[in-house]
Amino acid sequence: MKKWVWVRRFSQIFFTGLFIYALAASIQPGHWISPKPWFWSDPLAMFSLSISSRTFVHGLGWSILFVLASVFLGRFFCGWLCPMGALGDLVGSLRKKKRKLSPETNRFWRKPKYILLAVLGLLALAGFQEVWFFDPIVIAGRFISMNLLPVFAQGLNTTFIFLIKHIPPLDTPLTEAYRCVRQSVLGSRLYTFSNAFPIFLYFAVLALAGLWVARLWCRTLCPLGAIYALFSRKALLARRVDDCSSCRRCQRDCRMAAIGPDLKTVPGECILCMDCIYECPGKKTYFSFKPRVRAKTEPVSGGLSRKDFLVLFLVPVFLAGFRRRRRSASRESGAQEGPLRPPGALAEKDFLNRCIRCGNCMKACPTNGLQPSVIDDGWSALWVPRLLPNVGACEYNCNQCGSVCPTGAIRPLPLALKQKVRIGLAEIDRSRCLNWTDQDTCLVCEEHCPLPEKAIQLVHVRGRSRPVVDVSRCIGCGLCQNVCPAEPVRAIRVYPLSSQK
Predict the structure, then answer these.
(1) Helix 3-25 and helix 83-92, axial crossing angle in degrees, nearest 10
(2) Looking at residues 196-221, what average pLDDT do you find?
């Protein structure tokens, strides 16, 4: 029985399932589990955010602990905890024929992830955070939030409705079950995202690459894996072999090609999958914490030394960044430009730099109003959350977006304070308003304004009550625009404070 292999598989299933559950559970206020620890334990994201923003990002301590753990346990995160790694193993198991690559090809394919890590580090030093496009935790979380959970919710909703309609004898119990499911953490709450297909396509390409070569993403491009590989080169827990018979089965079957032509383990590439223990016909392979025997090993060609890594990522944090610590401006100042952002978002430049596009806030938005930006807003804003009032307004009694943001791009505000934060200002186009053009006595915008003191007031003009916006009260929640019946263009629109027309 492959005991350690099964233990590893259980670990992958458990932590990936818990990650999915944490993302799903964050939809409900007061959830007992948060997805934040998964992002906080990501040194790639935390280091890059800290360096690029010149601040200590909350969660940096968690990521440092994981890096230190890799010094003792090796690249355990990639083989036992990472959701993208678990998916890579699942996809790899579907391959009918294993592709064998030459040692030279394997050495070449290990280089890009180190080069990519260096590039991301240099961009962070220059003040640009671009890890959101390459970080495996962010990629997996974005796919789960934007694609997997909405499809699951839609499928669950459709299934229950079908069963209730077509199985009359079970109508009552199914209806009760349906009601419970809709109210539960994994309920069938229906929500969609306008830019979900490119997110799915990007994730699918990375995942299905494993059908060509096992764990191609992990071997070649993953910059988070590169960090763990650098710190695992002298790991205490390592693969050992006694009296090898040179059958080369371990080298042939290693999913990471971490066993070189000399049958020694390549430092930093082993993810502790434990397959080699059970592939060895003489049972001579094992893992232990025994001191490493000094012997020549295959170098990590094209990689960065640990010293170079420390200089690149840690020294600038203390020597350059913290001498010029910047304070982010609040949205309440009205000094930003661009689309509507969630309440509590940092100033636009800082917000774009701090946001890792994980999708947590968009998934947690109860009205589905937070949507990922498209390429029209520029590459720097791709997949960043923006409020689209036509889709859904900012719920007055909700502050979920700030509570689930793992990086502080959206500040966690108390509900009473969030209800006072101004993210925009509504403006009525009197040439389109049904009331102002005397087409109807419509007062929908005034009736739905959630503020107790009403930001939309009624004034008596030409013998009729007309709606006007009180600019001193409006917070830009967008509910008036959402409910406006004027078509095809709403007669009332919310503009960002800095671009108010």
Answers:
(1) 130
(2) 90
Domain identity same for 389 and 482: no
Confidence of residue 414 (pLDDT cuts 50, 70, 90): very high
Q: Alpha carbon 125 to chain centroid distance?
A: 22
Calpha distance 394→419 (Å, rounded): 10
Q: Is the dihedral of CA 86, 92, 98, 101 positive or negative?
A: negative
Cα→Cα distances 151→190, 192, 285, 385, Å: 9, 9, 44, 20
Helices (H) and strands (E) in the chain, counts: 23, 8
Q: What is the pLDDT of residue 120?
A: 94
- Would the pLDDT of 421 be above 90? yes
What span, in angstroms and rounded, lies between the C-alpha atoms of 271 and 188?
Answer: 37
**Across residues 8-37, what is the average pLDDT?**
85
CA–CA distance, 330 with 498 (Å, rounded to integer): 13
One domain for residues 227 and 87: yes
Q: 435 and 407 share a domain? A: no
Print the domain residue range for 364.
331-418
Q: What is the DSSP string of 319-357?
A: IIIGGG---PPBGGG----SS---TTBBPHHHHHHH---
Listed residue (257, 265, 302, 229) closest to 82, CA to CA:
229
When comparing pLDDT for 463 and 303, which is higher? 463
Q: Domain containing 465 — which CATH number?
A: 3.30.70.20
The DSSP annotation for 406-458 comes to SSSSB----HHHHTT----EEEE-TTT-TTTTTS----HHHHH--STT-SEEE
Give the model's pLDDT for residue 125. 92
- CA-nearest of 275, 392, 283 to 6 is 275
Determine phi and psi for 296, rounding to 5 degrees: -70, 135
Q: Using the Cα atoms of residue 191, residue 20, residue 89 and residue 154 in order, give the sign of their dihedral.
A: negative
Q: Are residues 480 and 368 in the same domain?
A: no
| Domain limit, last residue, from 232, 249, 279 | 232
On whether residue 321 sits in a domain, the answer given is: no
Work out the average pLDDT over 151-176: 84
Residue 103 is predicted with a pLDDT of: 67
Place of tokens 């997996």: 140
The answer to whether residue 150 scores a pLDDT higher than 70 is yes
On whether both 367 and 473 belong to a single domain, the answer is no
